[in-house]
Design a protein that fits this description.
6-stranded antiparallel β-sheet, mainly beta, 6% helix, single chain, 5-stranded antiparallel β-sheet
């Protein structure tokens, strides 16, 4: 249980998300469901609904805090550097440690939908591109 499609949420905002084909104008969509500062002087917690279209790729990136989530529907492969790949299917959960380099790809023929939670350091970018 690890990996992050949730990074998709951050990536969609940061420009790290890449469509697999030119005809896909937006491979990744994110909808902010909740945001809370806690503790207010140190961390921000975000919950997103993340949707990745078939063939959509989430480029390698990191977060300044933990990311975890739950797969609602669809199929994807998530990669966290130094760990075996995780096949995401409905009901699969994941967790990505702070600073871990990770990325993902929708391997199915329909969108993958996840609910992703981030608890990150206040005033830092939600996602940072990784080589």
């Amino acid at each position: 249980m690890r990996l992050a499609l949730a990074g998709l949420a951050a990536l969609a905002a940061s420009g790290l998300a890449q469509p697999a084909a030119a005809q896909q104008p937006t491979a990744i969509q994110r909808i902010e469901l909740a945001k809370q500062m806690f503790p207010p002087d140190r961390f921000a917690t975000f919950i997103y609904m993340v949707v990745v279209q078939p063939g959509g790729i989430v480029a390698r990136h990191t977060h300044p805090g933990i990311e975890m989530g739950y797969t609602l529907e669809g199929d994807a492969v998530l990669s966290v550097e130094g760990q075996p790949d995780l096949k995401m299917t409905p009901g699969v959960t994941y967790s990505v440690p702070p600073g871990a380099i990770h990325g993902a790809k929708n391997t199915g023929d329909k969108p993958i939908k996840i609910v992703a939670t981030f608890v990150v350091e206040k005033d830092k970018p939600l996602a940072t591109p990784a080589p």
